Amino acid sequence: MKKLLVILLALLLSGVITAHKQHVHQYLTMEAYKLLKMQLSGDVRIMKDRIGDWTNFYEGERPWQRGYITTGAWREDEDDVVYGYSKSNPPTLTGITGSIYDFAAIFGGLRPDGFVSSTHFWYADDGDNINTTIRAAVTIDWLPPFPLVSAASFTIPNAYQKIKKYKDGDWGGIC
Questions:
Q1: Closest Cα to residue 132, out of 165, 91, 100, 169?
Q2: Looking at per-residue confidence, does 75 or 34 come out higher?
Q3: Any alpha helices (H) in the chain, and if so which ranges?
Q4: What is the dihedral of CA 53, 41, 43, 37, to 10 degrees?
Q5: Is 118:156 a contact under the CB 8 Å cutoff?
Q6: pTM for the whole thing?
Q7: In angstroms, how far is the first alpha carbon of the chain from the final one?
Q8: How far apart are CA 42 and CA 36, in angstroms?
Q9: Per-residue pLDDT tens over the stretch 102-131
Q10: Please, are residues 27 and 67 in contact by the beta-carbon 8 Å criterion?
Q11: Who's near 5: CB < 8 A, 6+ residues apart?
């Protein structure tokens, strides 16, 4: 009975741990295409040939490397092609965290993954063209004996502003 409980607990936790990873983006993209096919009662020829899947090939190692939709779904948390944010070029942080971030980036050990996807958010109640301010924490793992965590905020364009740039072609292929 204990073994069964441990196995069930492991399965439940594995879903939580990978809930927001990039393979989920690829999976959702493929499921969305399935829904589109059902709605249209068939394949969309150009999309069928470019959808891709979730094997490692479709992850891509750099922007615009592969012409597949699932590659874009994977890379959206690696590179922000509208504003040019990436793990090596995050949004500007204000306050002491900006200085800590610059210092830590020189010596390594910094995980800026969350900064890249910051333009995924939008406080719609604030209005369509109001930039989004996000509080962030920077963790430096290599600082013994405890990791340093510093909180600050940064202001970035919101998801609505970003999608308008995509729609208007006003993004210039930055990455």
A1: 91
A2: 34
A3: 2-17, 22-40, 45-50, 69-75, 96-107, 113-116, 159-168
A4: -30
A5: yes
A6: 0.62
A7: 52
A8: 8
A9: 555 544 544 555 667 778 888 888 889 898
A10: no
A11: none
